[in-house]
């Protein structure tokens, strides 16, 4: 994607380069600026970038809730500094500068988020379920509509969908924060090295070095931004999902086995427990997971993948399921159990048949 050039121009409240400085010529006072005539129009111009900024912050932070907080802070800083925005940079690149600073501040001293399979070996069916780890431990799901801005080019949309996959988000969290920003800006958003250097208050050589190190780390993790881009679900994949929903809702373990890949995985953050292999998954369903019998699945879209809100037989929410498929089978059931926060995020009611978001 061709991106417009960034600028050293700054605004108040952290809009300057992440490396520090004011972006102004020493000894030269800025020219007087006037209040924008149309503040409502200014808000509209800022809000037009919300979805793509949320996608950027989500890739940086690994949490939909932290991403939305970061974008809100970005909008507040941009609004406060709008009358001092001199327009030498595009509005879009100026907002990315602010958002990058906000994310880098949030990442200072924090632990990286991960998936259960990034932290330990597969569990056995007999492993105690446990009480779970704190929310800040885990990468969380995000609704597609929150992070995927509409693009005229279907290829751009496909790339954007791949770059919010849970596995790729997990791989990004292995990178140092500035390396993470460089890789996302260069390889996902297609900014030039000079644009990224200007945004970060760095040099082109430093940006290229950070990108090389980031690529090496991702290659070692087995996940890169250059993975094969999948097309929208075709009829065969849609049929597979229909078979999965039918098998899950009827709690038919033979039918469920037929749609699962031999090495499929089941994970359930905030629980540490995760399983590999369809046999163990089925055994778990018939044992500790027997409460899923009678569940109802409501389709949603998360992380560029098909997903479902799972309600138990009594109508209470149980999980957001994000589904991965390959070679005509389901390869991953990623179930997120923080329903009190996640169901409203996805516009789902807190009781099956209730009002959305209620």
From TrEMBL:
Where would I find the RNA polymerase sigma-70 region domain in this sequence? 47-112
Which residue intervals define the domain SnoaL-like in the entry? Answer: 241-331
Residue ranges under compositional bias (Low complexity)? 1-15
Q: Where is this region: Disordered?
A: 1-46
What ranges does the record list as Basic and acidic residues composition bias? Answer: 26-46
Cite a single Pfam family from the UniProt record. Sigma70_r2
Which of UniProt's keywords are assigned here? Sigma factor, Transcription, Transcription regulation
**InterPro entries xref list:** ECF_Sigma-70_Domain, NTF2-like_dom_sf, RNA_pol_sigma-70_dom, RNA_pol_sigma-G_actinobac, RNA_pol_sigma70_r2, RNA_pol_sigma70_r4_t2, RNA_pol_sigma_r2, RNA_pol_sigma_r3/r4-like
Kindly indicate whether the keyword Transcription belongs to this entry: yes
> Has keyword Transcription regulation?
yes
All residue ranges annotated as the RNA polymerase sigma factor 70 region 4 type domain in the record: 166-218
Q: Which domain of life is it from?
A: Bacteria
Cited SUPFAM superfamilies: NTF2-like, Sigma2 domain of RNA polymerase sigma factors, Sigma3 and sigma4 domains of RNA polymerase sigma factors
Family designation: Belongs to the sigma-70 factor family. ECF subfamily.
Recorded hits in PANTHER family, A to Z, give: ECF RNA POLYMERASE SIGMA FACTOR SIGJ (PTHR30173:SF36), SIGMA 19 FACTOR (PTHR30173)
Q: Could you describe the subunit structure of this protein?
A: Interacts transiently with the RNA polymerase catalytic core formed by RpoA, RpoB, RpoC and RpoZ (2 alpha, 1 beta, 1 beta' and 1 omega subunit) to form the RNA polymerase holoenzyme that can initiate transcription.
Q: What NCBIfam families does this protein's entry cite?
A: PRK08241.1 (NF006089), sigma70-ECF (TIGR02937), SigX5 (TIGR02960)
Q: What is this protein called?
A: Sigma-70 family RNA polymerase sigma factor
What organism, scientifically named, is this protein from?
A: Streptomyces mooreae
């Amino acid at each position: 994607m061709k991106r417009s050039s960034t600028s050293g121009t700054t605004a108040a409240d952290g809009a300057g380069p992440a490396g520090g400085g004011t972006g102004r010529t020493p000894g030269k006072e800025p020219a007087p600026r006037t209040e924008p005539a149309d503040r409502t129009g200014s808000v509209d111009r800022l809000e037009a970038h919300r979805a793509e900024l949320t996608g950027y912050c989500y890739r940086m932070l690994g949490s939909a809730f932290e991403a939305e907080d970061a974008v809100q802070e970005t909008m507040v800083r941009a609004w406060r500094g709008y009358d001092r925005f001199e327009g030498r940079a595009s509005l879009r690149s100026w907002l990315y500068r602010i958002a990058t600073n906000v994310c880098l501040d949030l990442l200072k001293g924090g632990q990286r988020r991960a998936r259960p399979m990034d932290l330990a070996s597969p569990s056995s069916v007999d492993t105690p379920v446990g009480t779970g780890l704190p929310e800040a431990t885990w990468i969380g799901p995000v609704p597609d509509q929150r992070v995927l801005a509409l693009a005229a080019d279907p290829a751009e949309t496909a790339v954007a969908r791949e770059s919010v996959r849970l596995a790729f988000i997990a791989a990004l969290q292995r990178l140092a924060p500035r390396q993470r920003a460089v890789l996302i800006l260069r390889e996902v958003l297609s900014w030039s090295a000079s644009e990224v250097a200007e945004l970060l208050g760095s040099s082109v050589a430093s940006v290229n070095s950070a990108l090389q190190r980031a690529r090496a780390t991702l290659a070692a993790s087995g996940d890169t931004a250059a993975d094969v881009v999948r097309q929208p679900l075709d009829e065969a994949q849609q049929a597979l999902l229909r078979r999965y929903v039918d098998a899950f809702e009827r709690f038919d373990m033979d039918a469920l086995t037929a749609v699962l890949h031999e090495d499929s995985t089941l994970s359930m953050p905030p629980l540490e427990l995760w399983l590999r292999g369809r046999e163990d998954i089925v055994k778990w369903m018939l044992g500790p997971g027997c409460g899923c019998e009678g569940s109802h699945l409501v389709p949603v879209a998360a992380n560029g993948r098909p997903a479902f809100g799972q309600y138990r037989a009594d109508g209470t929410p149980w999980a957001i399921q994000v589904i991965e498929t390959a070679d005509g089978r389901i390869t991953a059931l990623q179930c997120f159990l923080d329903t009190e926060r996640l169901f409203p995020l996805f516009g789902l009611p807190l009781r099956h048949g209730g009002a959305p978001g209620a």
